[in-house]
Task: inverse folding
């Protein structure tokens, strides 16, 4: 067996199950899970219609690179959404379909990291708290994870200047998540420019997880994307050492479709395509055709944002005045990253036992680094359920704390 498998940590939901073991919630209250970020809104009907009509295409082998029409739809959406210049993003070289971004976020480390670095292992940098796939990808690529904190004093944004020069010198890959999971903080253009300048000096690939970019509250201020900042450079290789990840799971309420995209550095994607061809993760043709419909339609995405906006308004009205929990509207995304008094694990277990509501303790999403665990004292609440359930959960939290 690969010895690096023994380096993997238990997944957050394994820890959550252990925390809840033996607990008996009230039987007269239905369970309301706020722990898992699985969209619960209805998938768009136009996508389901396309999927049904395309089912006979399941008889054909799909290409790993995807159908040209799919890459064109993806490149078109990225160009419109991030205001890229005409022709800046080539569907032939700058875009690839992936079977959901989870597998691609893992696979990119296996393709990028060079283990043969001498006495010290290569470094993969990642935010802390973080999506645990980043850490697992680094460990199984033979790299050393470096956890850069995203703390409340800095608006839950990363401070790339605080990363030691010795770490930058060993770094090969940096994961960044914006809007952030779990905080919802959005990295702005100046901070992205500084990151790109530093990464290029050290020849570090920047992998931007932007899966929550289409859930935001002001229709006139969508979150900044790394591609639009990288594209400012112009020239023949504006996306050098840059790769971004987008998904239909959150944007279009299609988590079970397992469809997303990677885009950016053409030279990197050429080699990544070779890796993925051997990995065997081509999207079935019905999935590709349904994805074309989804990427080409914005009406369902705007409606989806409206549902989340309504839920955040209602939940914040209930919880903001409550002592014992500190909540704020995030910049984007569908999580509330709520501060609580005391050990957040005790809060989560008590909430389950007394109110049959499940939230995720923050330290299950983070690691202690330099004596600080940035997840301690926080719980993550995913407002993915229907409005009535989110309101009911907020009222139960309020009842527990009064």
Result:
């Amino acid at each position: 067996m690969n010895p690096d498998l023994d380096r993997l940590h238990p997944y957050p939901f394994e820890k959550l199950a252990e925390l809840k073991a033996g607990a008996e919630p009230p039987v007269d209250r239905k369970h309301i899970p706020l722990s898992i970020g699985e969209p619960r809104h209805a998938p768009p009907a136009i996508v389901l219609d396309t999927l049904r009509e395309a089912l006979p295409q399941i008889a054909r082998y799909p290409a790993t690179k995807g159908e040209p029409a799919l890459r064109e739809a993806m490149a078109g959406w990225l160009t419109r959404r991030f205001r890229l210049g005409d022709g800046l993003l080539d569907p032939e070289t700058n875009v690839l379909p992936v079977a959901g971004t989870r597998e691609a976020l893992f696979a990119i480390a296996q393709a990028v990291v060079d283990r043969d670095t001498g006495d010290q292992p290569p470094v993969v940098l990642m935010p802390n708290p973080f999506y645990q796939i980043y850490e697992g990808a680094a460990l199984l690529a033979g790299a050393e994870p470096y956890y850069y904190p995203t703390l409340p004093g800095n608006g839950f944004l990363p401070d790339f200047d605080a990363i030691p020069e010795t770490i930058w010198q060993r770094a090969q890959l940096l994961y960044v998540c914006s809007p952030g999971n779990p905080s919802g903080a959005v990295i702005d253009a100046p901070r992205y420019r500084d990151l790109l300048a530093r990464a290029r000096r050290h020849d570090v690939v920047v992998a931007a997880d932007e899966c929550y970019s289409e859930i935001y509250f002001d229709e006139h201020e969508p979150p900044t994307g790394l591609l639009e900042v990288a594209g400012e450079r112009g020239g023949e290789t504006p996306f050098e050492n840059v790769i971004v990840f987008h998904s239909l799971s959150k944007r279009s309420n299609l988590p079970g479709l397992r469809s997303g995209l990677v885009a950016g550095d053409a030279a990197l994607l050429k080699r990544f395509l070779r890796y993925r061809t051997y990995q065997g993760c081509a999207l079935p043709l019905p999935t590709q055709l349904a994805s074309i419909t989804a990427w080409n339609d914005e009406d369902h995405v705007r409606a989806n944002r409206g549902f989340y906006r309504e839920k955040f308004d209602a939940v914040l009205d209930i919880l903001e005045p409550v002592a014992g929990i500190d909540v704020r509207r995030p910049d984007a995304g569908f999580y509330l990253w709520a501060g609580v008094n005391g050990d957040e694990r005790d809060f989560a277990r008590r909430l389950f036992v007394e109110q049959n509501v499940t939230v995720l303790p923050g330290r299950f999403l983070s690691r202690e680094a330099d004596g600080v665990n940035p997840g301690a004292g926080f719980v993550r609440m995913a407002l993915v359920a229907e409005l009535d359930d989110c309101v009911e959960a907020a009222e139960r939290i309020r009842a527990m704390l009064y």
User: Anything to note?
Assistant: The first strand starts at residue 32 and ends at 33. The chain has two domains: 3-42+300-401, 60-297. The domain at 60-297 is CATH 3.40.640.10 (Aspartate Aminotransferase; domain 2). The CA atoms of residues 114 and 215 lie 35 Å apart.
